[in-house]
Amino acid sequence: PVLGLPELAWGFEIDSGASIIRIRQAKDHLLVLDDWGQVYKVNCQTGKLIWKNEYGVSDLTEVSSNLSPAVDNSSIRRVRRMVVIDDQFVLPFGKSIRTYSIHNGELLWQAQLSSKVSVLESSSGAAPELHIDAADGKVVLFSSLSNELAAFDSLTGKLVWDKTLSQKTDDHQNGLVSMN
After folding, report:
1. How far apart are alpha carbons 54 and 33 in whole angstroms?
2. Are 116 and 162 contacting, i.e. CB atoms less than 8 angstroms apart?
3. How many CA atoms lie within 13 A of 72 on its CB side?
4. What is the mean pLDDT of the chain?
């Protein structure tokens, strides 16, 4: 290194016009999610592209009815969560979640969210993000608007439990409010 500065080991480019919105490490690989709904699996050591699959963008139907008629829905891309658990990664799709194999990007299972946990429309036109995380063999979802939690088995997609955290109110005075 010149003057002790780090050297670039490798570079990686996504499709022209797309923007990276999530990067997650999966053992010795990176999963890169762009705003077009494409996931790239990249070798951490070499930067070599292992595979690339297009999964599509998150459904906008839950927010589109409150948008101004002057807003072109096709130009809107919602930032999507992506969670890695073991040899899988999980993506939300509107009112469902889908789990894919890190090895080849193929669908392993999908689960429809209950009406209690799904992303709901707010009066302001903004839709709260569906929060998603994974731990102890479970994929856990939280809807900040309905104050609902649900856990799915990460191997099968079977609903393990769901719970209301508190009584939902329109002013959120008695509910749990996500600050993220």
Report:
1. 10
2. yes
3. 2
4. 77
* 21 neighbors 34 (Cβ within 8 angstroms): yes
Distance of CA 85 to the CA centre of its chain: 13
Find tokens 């302001």 and name the residue: 124
In terms of Cα–Cα distance, which of 107, 141, 154, 124 is closest to 62?
Answer: 124
pLDDT digits (tens, 9 = 90+) for 18-39: 999 999 999 999 999 998 889 9
Which single residue is written with the structure tokens 């500065």? 5
Model confidence, pTM: 0.73
Instruction: Give the tens place of pLDDT for each residue, 36-80.
Output: 889 999 999 999 999 999 998 765 444 444 444 555 545 455 557
- Amino acid found at 87: D
> Sign (positive/negative) of CA torsion 136, 93, 179, 32?
positive
3-state SS record for the chain: CHHHCCCCCCCCCCCCCCCEEEEEEECCEEEEEECCCEEEEEECCCCCEEEEEECCCCCCHHHHCCCCCCCCHHHCCCCCCCEEECCEEEEEECCEEEEEECCCCCEEEEEECCCCCCCCCCCCCCCCCEEEEEECCEEEEEECCCCEEEEEECCCCCEEEEEECCCCCCCCCCCCCCCC
